[in-house]
Amino acid sequence: MHSNVDQRAPRSLKLAASAGLLFLHLPILLIFVYAFTTEEKSYQWPPPGFTLKWFAVTWARPDVWRALKLSVGVASLSTIVALVLGTLCAAAISRSKFFGRETISLLVILPIALPGIITGIALRSAFNLAEIPFSVWTIVLGHATFCVVVVYNNAVARFRRTSASLIDASMDLGADGFQTFRYVILPNLGTALLAGGMLAFALSFDEVIVTTFTAGQQQTLPIWMLEELVRPRQRPVTNVVAMVVVLVTFLPILAAYYVTRESRSADGQSR
């Protein structure tokens, strides 16, 4: 038997990994730096000075608060729709056998694989054809098309790991469908739905392309940022808002990662 030897990564691999991380995250760090610069008209490097005044300026801007409130509302509603539809689709696909099941599963996940501009054009054409006025609800429906996929992927994976004998045992003991769902299925799905919901919220919160085609006069926070970059007034304010967007999207993704990791380790220990 070979003893377990601590195998260290070669220096070249460490350098390549470090270079990749810098390539991915250095632009994000620049956003944070420019949020504190004293220069408000251009992105000058190095910044001529540092100040905290842009945080106060951003706090006092009512248009920022309106856009933030709309983004949080749209992301919350899209997440709720995605949780309901994604869970139902996952239950139907994983717990039933019928002709064309794999094709339907592919169609469910297709929206997240399509370019956002294709989804946006398709939704805008559908809304125009149905004479549906553009509003917050059209944005929610647009975001739900790809948020459903995230919830579906998490839920269907958990459904497949849940033993069918648990459900059969619950039924044999006299539990009805609702009781089985509440006491057997939901506890097993809980972490998967929590992770899927947090990822769906993050995806909806920072969506730009689909929002451009499904919004009327509404401005979500990413759309507000895009227009501020086109017609700059105070560039550091845009960077302060960008910091908020990074944090709001990063924290749910980080939480979802730890939730799914803990659930996987718990599943491994139970087996």
Describe this structure in words.
- This protein has eleven helices and no strands.
- Helix 2 crosses helix 11, helix 4 (101-113) packs across helix 6 (136-161) and helix 10 (221-230) packs antiparallel against helix 11.
- The chain has 271 residues and is mainly alpha-helical.
- It has one domain (29-270): MetI-like fold, CATH 1.10.3720.10.
- Helices cover 77% and strands 0% of the residues.
- The protein has helices at 11-34, 53-59, 62-95, 101-113, 116-129, 136-161, 164-172, 177-205, 209-214, 221-230, 235-270.
- The model has no long low-confidence stretch (mean pLDDT 78).
In a few lines, what is going on in this structure?
The chain is mostly helical. It has one domain (29-270): MetI-like (MetI-like fold), CATH 1.10.3720.10.
